[in-house]
Amino acid sequence: MVNVVDRFLKYVSYDTQSDEHSETYPSSEKQKVLGAALAEELNHMGLHNAHMDEYGYVYGWLPASAGCEGVPCVGLIAHMDTSPSASGADVKPRIVRYEGGDLVLNDEKNIVMRAADFESLDKYVGQELIVTDGTTLLGADDKAGVAEIFTAVEYLMAHPEVPHGRIAVCITPDEEVGGGTEHFDVPGFGAAVAYTVDGGELGELEYENFNAASASVVIHGVNIHPGSAKNKMKNALLIGLEFVGMMPPAETPAHTEGYEGFYHLSEMHGDETETRMDYIVRDHNMDKFQARKAYLGRVSDYLNAKYGKGTVELTLKDGYYNMREKIEPHMYLILRARSAMEAAGVTPMEVPIRGGTDGARLSYMGLPCPNLCTGGINFHGVHEYIPVEALEKMVQVLVNLVRNQ
């Protein structure tokens, strides 16, 4: 069997960064390079019909053990792409024993993970951590999930005495740019229920997430030479700032936590003639989510009444919804995950996701799919790390999860 750490270190050597500006699927062809290797690995393990499809999804099925053929199929899902927020090329991982204090990632470039800024480090004094050299992300999101699933499946193949039903495996592309379920073959996957393995700190168990929408705000102005602009110029930049000023100042990511929703201005550019602003809108509560979108509409209407019809063009697009509604009829999935963690010596921590996962979309596509931790911390940046023990524990959790009791 391949050690989960060695497997993980191999996967992070592949650059699989997805591209939020691409119009292809997957958004970057390099994801298929790892996808092909993963499909071959599953085939080598002996999974049925292991393959990568035309969209870059990797599928494989582990048959039920003897006597468990009637047990409903459970799916295990992770994603292969890494975030566009930081480079995923030429990752240089290393294993360090953390003894407390600041952790130097790159002495030459003076890149340090300061204990005062990253309080999570306190929990891992005395443990081995996998870190980067501070110039790239690590890729634990979500290559840790891939490594944990593959190692658990390989363990089950090597231990036929462990009873389990049929297990469906899928590794998706483009999760980080919102496209991970775009071509997911739910009927072909064949699972009755599934788990994404795409969360953070060891013990996290998630079945609630934000309702999410994107808002595009385009301000159409009228540009006149400043020397003769009195009562004629309609400066789109200033109207855009007026729009921003009407957003509740305490309802931004920097001032919210837990179940609190927000408006987040993610991009703004333009000139006097036209200015564009992109917002993301989030709330766990559906009524509050709808109210947030309605408020954006009222602000737009007010500015159009003030400056003229068509000045503000608002486009809203829902992204995903809170999976809780779809998980609640299947709460045995959560009980099962709790038991699997406790049996591995892991304390479950049920936390709301201040974001979304492929599991949220899949739950609305007919595949109830809560999210499990990977053990990784500080995703999407150069300070990302994962404890070796977390990788190993999650393999045990996954084996416990699919074991037929």
Topology, number of strands = 17
Oligomer: single chain
Number of H/I helices: 10
Instruction: Determine the structural class based on helices, strands and strand pairing.
Output: alpha+beta
Question: Mind sketching the topology for me?
Answer:
Layout (H helix, E strand, L loop, with lengths): L3 H8 L18 H16 L2 E5 L5 E5 L11 E6 L14 E4 L5 E4 L4 E3 L14 E4 L8 H19 L8 E6 L13 H4 L3 E7 L4 E3 L4 E10 L15 H10 L16 E9 L3 E10 L2 H22 L4 E9 L3 H4 L4 H12 L5 E2 L7 H7 L6 E3 L12 E2 H15 L3
Parallel strand pairs: 3-8, 3-9, 9-16, 10-15
Antiparallel strand pairs: 1-2, 2-8, 4-7, 5-6, 7-17, 10-16, 11-13, 11-14, 12-13
Q: What keyword list fits this structure?
A:
eight-stranded mixed β-sheet, 405 residues, single chain, globular, 17 strands
